[in-house]
Write a structure and sequence with these properties.
17% strand, 3 domains, Aspartate Aminotransferase, domain 2, three-stranded antiparallel β-sheet, alpha/beta, 14 helices, Aspartate Aminotransferase, domain 1
Length: 414
Amino acid sequence: MPKQLFSVTLISRATAQNTDVCQGFMRKLEGAFYDCRGYYLPAMKIQFHNPGRTYQAHRREIDAAVARVLSSGRYILGAEVEQFESEFAQYTGTKHAVGVASGTDALVVALRALEIGIGDEVVMAANAGGYATTACVLVGATPVYADVIEPDFTLDPQSVERMTTEKTKAIIATHLYGSMCDVVGLQELTRRNEISLIEDCAQSHGATLSGKRAGSFGDVATFSFYPTKNLGALGDGGMVVCQGQGLADELFSLRQYGWSSKYTVKTAGGMNTRLDPIQAAILRTRLPHLDDNNARRRQLADLYAQRLSPLGLEMVRAEGEAFVGHLCVVRSDARDSLKHKLTESKIGTDIHYPILDPDQPGWANIGWRSDDLPVSRLATKRILSLPMYPELTIDEVNAVCDAIELIVSEDAIA
């Protein structure tokens, strides 16, 4: 039979090593196979994401919230959306929150509210999945790419400053993988140059820096509630937060056709992008658990680091509560081989992200500018995302790490 590595097991390697005498290559204990060294062979898949576990963990609350909306008869905006907007603004330390249909729509609405469009430049990271570039293309602005810094691969303020010109109207500061970027340094840069700071917090719900939440530093900040986010809906959704009443009024108008009142358009560029009340009700049930879930993500990330650092795999993360473990990203010079062998072992992985924005074929002719991107380019060849969600068990994390340990020891890769 072809040799495979491992998946999750119900008992530990230590237990396996101390049970019976190994005969041949495999033995079977409690329904799972082990090799002579006590390592696990495939038994069940460890999924990269598993939002179904999140639903099961909070099923009663979520079902009651959905039933409440269905019984209300109000299925567009309404009290559930307004209450979640208020609760989320309070949580993030901002004064206003505007619910929209997705995180990408949140970026588009934010850019339009800041009157950014054709002829304007927006500085951003090139390694953040293309969402900021997509928003710029939709409003007609020009993306300008700055490099990132280690160890968290977030924006390098020095590179941002190099790329800032008289055409620059904003910086989109993405808090990547759950790590807050140097938002204080970027805030100082934007103030000095009299341009806007947009925080992209799609991967950093609940992160804090110097006692302030992600989303409270920028002129405006955007969030995604995609199901696998730290604060995820059971569908899509997004939010824009800000401090100023005038900007909030513009955001509320833009999310619904540019209306000032029903059927009266006051602002060009309005959209139909409203947060669904069923998703708002679900998010209201999940928000009180966010801090505990982030603490759990940090615990799992710490375990990964403890197990994988001696193997030469470096974690991509900020320190302390500036990191909320949206993703568990490691660096390996043998990334592709490691990913392939983990897939054979029924362990889900991904790459966030394999292609830099300026290398995307569909954006070859949109007129972007870019700094040299040596750190960003090297990262795309080395990064690998491992399973990470609050419902992941310690045994599953150890199973992933055991598999990597065997791969590294047999292939001498890292």
